[in-house]
Amino acid sequence: METIDVIxxxxxxxxxxxxxxxxxxxxxxxxxxxxxxxxxxxxxxVGRNTREILDLAGARDIPVVLGAxxxxxxxxxxxxxxxxxxxxxxxxxxxxxxxGLGEVDPRPCNEMLREVILNNPRPVTIIExxxxxxxxxxxxxxxxxxxxxxxxxxxxxxxxxxxxxxxxEFNTWHDPxxxxxxxxxxxxxxxxxxxxxxxxxxxxDIATLRSNSSPLANLAGDLLAGIAKPYEGEPRVTTGAYxxxxxxxxxxxxxxxxxxxTIRRHPVRVSLHDPLTRGMTVVDQRWVDxxxxxxxxxxxxxxxxxxxxxxxxxxxxEIFMNTLLR
Length: 326
Ligand code: RIB
Ligand code: CA
Hints:
Elements: E1 4-10, H1 14-25, E2 29-36, H2 43-56, E3 64-66, H3 80-83, H4 109-119, E4 124-128, H5 133-141, E5 149-155, H6 170-174, H7 176-185, E6 188-191, H8 193-196, E7 200-202, H9 203-210, H10 215-231, E8 242-245, H11 248-256, E9 261-270, E10 281-283, E11 287-288, E12 291-292, E13 304-311, H12 313-324
Parallel strand pairs: 1-2, 1-4, 2-3, 4-5, 5-6, 6-13
Antiparallel strand pairs: 7-8, 9-10, 9-13, 11-12
Helix pairs in contact: 1-2, 1-10, 1-11, 4-5, 5-7, 9-10, 11-12
Bound molecules: alpha-D-ribofuranose and calcium ion.
């Protein structure tokens, strides 16, 4: 895979933190900017966590911008019960190295992203690991940027079972209107819960990270241990010897080796108006790669989205571990 120019949109968050550590460590990614949005934690907390993680990874020069502190049409709903009150398993990131808060880009988020994208000589790939509020503002206010967006790789949605609700995944549930806007606006690849939970680690993997000579590997081990607690009740994670999963980081690992997932093109819609299913991503698997499998009522054909529904989770974890271990 050649080096691609990317923007990460994050709600750092335990697994966003691991995704950022991985992306910074890989030469395949030329990170142009990181934008922060309210999600797992407040915008202020996400901004702090993101800058400290970049600092620890030796990437203080990557521009960081603060975006939306709330969704388009509802209140923010932080997930402290999963990510801890500070958003990173209540770990003290200064324990892993020097963290001096780098400056935040002073421009409004959508103006900064617009300038980064339009001034870039090559198409930009967006890695969306959070509620899509920032991208919705950007695509709605400055649709011209879409001319230089290669694709949006989105951790979001679920084709079957949710996590925030029985049918909705947290990122699309946190801002359904934003997800609807973005999936209709940009070429997208969805990394839903069906694959999100598959790259899992064992207690042995966690111990290997924690005992490694790299402080960043130690941090990843502690982050995985931190999210293992709320995952104890999640059967999609804790089966057999598995104790935790790398979450968002799995999407970035997949970008390095896309052949590790089965990706098909389906119509995808976001439920907006029904309180019972709001935030649900309805993946029409009656259509595969544009081929109508069954003509039934309630037909729609847009937006067509690449959807990863199967993945080699162990191979993804191997990429993650080998990248962070020294
Ligand atoms: O549902 C999982 C997603 O919600 C991940 O991106 C996690 O970081 C949270 O944002
Ligand atoms: Ca996230």
